[in-house]
Structure formats: C-alpha cells, structure tokens
C-alpha cells in the first residue's frame, strides 16, 4: 500500500500539485473570511455582552449541522462549486474564533482594565493595547483550531463539484482505488500540519512585536 501511494505521487505529481493549490485556495479564503468575521463578532459581544448568548447560540446551532447537510442547504442558493464550499467552511470556522475571542477578552481581570482606565486610556487604546494582547493566547488557540478544521473539512468540497484534495479521495472511493484515497488524505493532513505551524510562527512574531511572554 505504501509503495502504491508513493508511486502515485511520483507518477501523477502534477495532478496532486494542482489539487493542493486548489485546496489551499478554498481553505485560505474561508479562513480569512471566518477569521475576520469571527474576530469582529468576538470583540463585539465582549464589549456588548447582552448579545453574547444570542450570537454564540446561533453559531452553535449552525456548527451542529452536518457538513453534507450544510452543503445541501446552500446549493439551491449558491449553486455547486467553490463558492458554496467556501461559504460552508466559513460558517463552520466562526465558532472557534468567536468563542475564543470572547472568552479571551472577558476573562481578563477587571482590575487590569481599571488600571488602564485610571491612566486615561481610551476604550480603543484599552482594546488594542491591553485586551487583545492579553487575550492573544486564547484567540490564537481558536485560530489554530479553526485553520486545521477548515483545511480538513475542505476535503468535502469535491462532493459538490469543487476542487481540492477531496477530488483524489472521492476518485479513490468511486474507483475502489485505496492508494488514491490514502494519497489525498495524507496530503490534506500534511497541509493542515504545515498551516498550524505557520500560525504558530505568526503568533511568535506577534508576541515578539508586542513584547509578550512566550
């Protein structure tokens, strides 16, 4: 089996290379959108906590919908292909970002915020210079979880006519070619691991810039 997988890589590497690029494009688009929206919503509900229960509740409900069902719900509105896959992945990526941003900010000790206020800091300065740096470890944990999950879930995109490494998995299943299925799955795992390490590197860079303890 292992020999068959590596033989596939050697013989059809341009095919897999194209699928990897498609996979990264779909996943990175969803990660960028859900990361931005999730961070914004997390900050919003941490500053206006009366909305927290409702927003997190709605996102929780969406998160419990099976991925295939989510794609089925979206197809009548957005059709088949990368667009629908990106929307579904964006929805799934919201929960870890919103929840971790909210948790990271709201668990900061009130005395720390009071000290910042006493020094004359504006609400924006408190958010940017106090809350976000202190909440960074929790936010990044949510981001890393979301990145790995999104890249893994991107494999289902092939079921609705989108690209990515799911194409190799789907083709392997339909043709009873186990080597093709494993080859696609291994590459998805490697892309996810590499992306996780990239996020960790960015976190270290931000910590260094903000002079935060590792």
UniProtKB/TrEMBL annotation:
Subcellular localization, as worded in the UniProt entry: Cell membrane; Membrane
Pfam families given in the database record: BPD_transp_1
GO terms under biological process: glycine betaine transport; transmembrane transport
GO cellular component, one term: plasma membrane
Membrane topology reported for the UniProt record: Multi-pass membrane protein
UniProt KW keywords: Membrane, Transmembrane, Transmembrane helix, Transport
UniProt cross-references to Gene3D superfamilies, sorted A to Z: MetI-like (1.10.3720.10)
InterPro entries (alphabetical): ABC_transp_perm/SBD (IPR051204), MetI-like (IPR000515), MetI-like_sf (IPR035906)
PROSITE patterns, per the entry: ABC_TM1
Spans traversing the lipid bilayer: 26-45, 51-75, 134-160, 180-202
Similarity comment: family membership: Belongs to the binding-protein-dependent transport system permease family.
Name of this protein: ABC-type proline/glycine betaine transport system permease subunit
Organism: Hungatella effluvii
């Amino acid at each position: 089996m292992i020999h068959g997988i590596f033989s596939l890589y050697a013989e059809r590497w341009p095919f897999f290379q194209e699928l990897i690029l498609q996979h990264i494009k779909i996943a990175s688009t969803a990660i960028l959108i859900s990361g931005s929206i999730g961070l914004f919503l997390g900050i919003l509900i941490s500053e206006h906590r009366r909305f927290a229960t409702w927003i997190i509740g709605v996102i929780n409900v969406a998160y419990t919908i099976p991925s295939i069902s989510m794609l089925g719900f979206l197809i009548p509105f957005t059709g088949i292909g990368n667009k629908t896959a990106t929307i579904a992945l964006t929805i799934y990526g919201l929960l870890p970002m919103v929840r971790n941003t909210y948790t990271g900010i709201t668990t900061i000790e009130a005395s720390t915020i009071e000290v910042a206020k006493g020094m004359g800091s504006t609400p924006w300065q408190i958010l940017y210079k106090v809350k976000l740096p202190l909440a960074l470890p929790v936010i990044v944990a949510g981001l890393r979880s979301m990145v790995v999950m999104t890249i893994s879930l991107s494999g289902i995109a092939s079921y609705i006519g989108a690209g990515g490494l799911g194409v190799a998995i789907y083709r392997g299943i339909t043709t009873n070619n186990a080597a093709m299925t494993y080859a696609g799955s291994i590459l998805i795992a490697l892309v996810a691991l590499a992306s996780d390490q990239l996020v960790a590197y960015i976190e270290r860079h931000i910590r260094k810039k903000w002079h935060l303890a590792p």
